[in-house]
Specification:
The longest helix has 19 residues, at 101-119. With 210 residues, this protein is mainly alpha-helical. Helices cover 68% and strands 0% of the residues.
Length: 210
């Protein structure tokens, strides 16, 4: 993986987030704080403005810079969580000019662990982690098995979609949705939807990487 691939992925994520604006906003209005999409879009816009700044950096340094920028840019509950993900990835990949698949999978897992630690949440609590944790575990397994990248991307996309839909039947224990109790049942978690959209966009972009 090279930094150019990270930049390509960021561009794809921004386009996918904008394409799914109405659905993400609708989900957040139903059980969230109502500002989730605005904050995510702001973060995407800021990262697009950083393309030239990120391009000469090694992947670890790029992820670290992305995380620090998002920390000062994204508001709401998701800002510190998303920024901690990228900062942790940057630390894991520090000093590696071109991470191979297992190294990237390990960094992704460390990023997810950072979100768990910052948010004090885990599987089954109707949050973005209900998508990120299963995807991270699958990515690590597929990396160890040296699965061809197109197949990795297809499986990760399916895993993200399946677990995003599963949040519909969960009772929230974190964030504003936790105050709704059983009224949150039947609604997909907006953070999990955003993660599913982002993961799908990244996978679609990276399928052709040799």
């Amino acid at each position: 993986m090279k930094t150019v691939h990270i930049i390509d992925a960021l561009e794809a994520v921004q386009a996918a987030i904008l394409a799914n604006e109405s659905q993400i906003e609708s989900l957040d209005r139903a059980i969230g704080d109502g500002d989730h999409f605005i904050n995510v879009r702001r973060g995407c816009d800021v990262l697009m403005a950083m393309r030239d700044e990120l391009a000469p950096l090694a992947p670890g340094a790029a992820f670290g810079k992305i995380g620090l920028k998002l920390l000062s840019t994204i508001g709401g509950a998701s800002g510190p969580l998303i920024s901690s993900f990228f900062i942790a990835m940057g630390k894991t990949l520090a000093g590696i000019d071109e991470p191979e698949r297992r190294q990237f999978a390990a960094a992704f897992a460390d990023g997810v662990e950072a979100i768990k630690s910052r948010g004090k949440a885990d599987l089954g609590e109707k949050t973005m982690l209900d998508v990120l944790i299963p995807v991270s575990r699958l990515l690590q397994r597929l990396a160890e098995e040296n699965t061809p990248l197109p197949q990795v991307c297809e499986q990760l996309t399916a895993e993200a979609h399946r677990n995003m839909l599963a949040t519909r039947d969960m009772t929230a224990t974190k964030g504003r949705a936790s105050f709704l109790g059983e009224r949150a049942l039947g609604h997909i978690d907006p953070g999990s939807k955003t993660c599913e959209v982002a993961i799908t966009a990244v996978c679609d972009t990276w399928k052709e990487i040799a």
